[in-house]
Amino acid sequence: MEIPARMINAPELKYGPGSKQATVQPRDGAWTLVDKKFSKPMSLGTWIVVIFMPQNSFSPDDAKRTITGLVQGCEAVGMPVPEKQPLFVYKNPQSDVDQSLSDAVMQNRSERKTTPTFIVCILPDGSDTDLYTAVKHCGDIRRGVANQCLHVGKCRNARPQYWANVALKINAKLGGVNDIPDPKLAPIISDPRQPTIVMGADVWA
């Protein structure tokens, strides 16, 4: 099957104040966030980490290193992180996820007198989609709390570029703006009067 198509140039992307490289021209659909700040970075605010694994599979030291990596990744792109050492708790991946997350929130309220506005969940490698779906259903639908799932195989000892990509997702979920396409090259996308969604797909010959 053949269909007509055309190749369009990637728009120049503009980043926020404080960026050493304020604009970037994507090449082959890829670019890095090194020395760039988000256009509208949001604060991570009050957050907690829920680890759906036993401690002998993901130790407290692993958790602390992961938290440090995430904090540094967010701050590198301009996101304020007032809570550098959030509460982290371990939960059974076979447990009632809604109850586990609710218990973690209540524990934070009891110990730190604050209500989390963001939840990071660390999931075991090879876990089925039921656990991920349950986390999303609880956070996005039932509780209305923004959340981010990380798989242990990727977040354990992750490199800065991984955390930059995670920060992209978190900032958007918190209502921030990561970058702004040049309006001259992408007038529809950059016009706030015309809300637009861009769907991406890999096309193989």
From TrEMBL:
Record's superkingdom?
Eukaryota
Any single GO molecular-function term of the entry would be:
nucleic acid binding
Per the database record, which ranges form the Piwi domain? 118-205
What the entry lists under Pfam families is as follows:
ArgoMid, Piwi
* SUPFAM superfamilies the UniProt entry points to: Ribonuclease H-like
Looking up InterPro entries in the UniProt record yields: Argonaute_Mid_dom, Piwi, RNaseH-like_sf
PROSITE patterns per UniProt: PIWI (PS50822)
Q: Which PANTHER family match?
A: EUKARYOTIC TRANSLATION INITIATION FACTOR 2C
Q: What is this protein called?
A: Piwi domain-containing protein
Organism the protein comes from: Armillaria tabescens (Ringless honey mushroom)
